Amino acid sequence: MSLPPPQSFGFPPAPAPRKRKTLPIVLASVGAVFLLCIGGTVIAAASSEQTQQTVAGDARSSTEAVAVASAVPDRTTATPTAEATTAAPSPKKTTTAPAAEKTTEAPAEPKLSVEQQNANESAESYLDGQSFSRTGLIKQLKFEGYPTKIATKAVDSVGADWKDQAAKSAESYLDGQAFSRTGLIKQLKFEGFTSSQAVHGVDSAGADWKEQAAKSAESYLDSSSFSRTGLIGQLEFEGFTHAQAVYGVNQVM
Questions:
Q1: What is the pLDDT of residues 38-82, one digit of tens each?
Q2: CA 161 – CA 200 distance, rounded (Å)
Q3: DSSP conformational letter for 18
Q4: Measured between alpha carbons, how far is 23 from 5 in angstroms, rounded to an integer?
Q5: From CA 189, how far away is CA 199, in angstroms rounded?
């Protein structure tokens, strides 16, 4: 059994509900999806292009790098290096002493003959006993029979100091008799000494010539008689100075 419709109690009837308009919403949704698809496609295309550009850039960079690398020679393989070997230590530098200068040795003297040896010994023997000038000793050896060449070589071989020989000869003369300085120089020159050797010998004797004048005056008076003036004249003739002669005569008269 059906119930009767309800009754209204003075209120107007409720309006019937409006139907929702779903078409615009659907269209909006479809549009949004479409836009999203298009946007995604664009983004994907952009991303793909960017990726391609990146890949192309990388490829280009790789190609350039390869080209640069091929242009630059490989330092490790371009020049083959010799295998490292342990080198022997270099010898230490040693300072060598400078070579001694070559000296020219004097040629060996020829062997002396027996006669030459005898002459040499004779010259040395004479000089050991008395004084000689070079010329006087050569004359003495020649007097003994030696040839001039052998006598000269013998005298030169002794290496005598002839000034010293002159001094010894002057002393020997003054020990035996009185001489003036001038007279003794003449005597040494007569024996063969040079002028310089004779002067050196006489001056080396250190004689007191006034005393020599006195000895000479006394010697004259022992053998003969003289006047004072005559004795002074004789001493001056022997080479004494006037003062020396007067001094000598005054000592004995």
A1: 555 544 444 455 545 543 455 454 444 334 344 444 444 444 444
A2: 12
A3: P
A4: 36
A5: 9
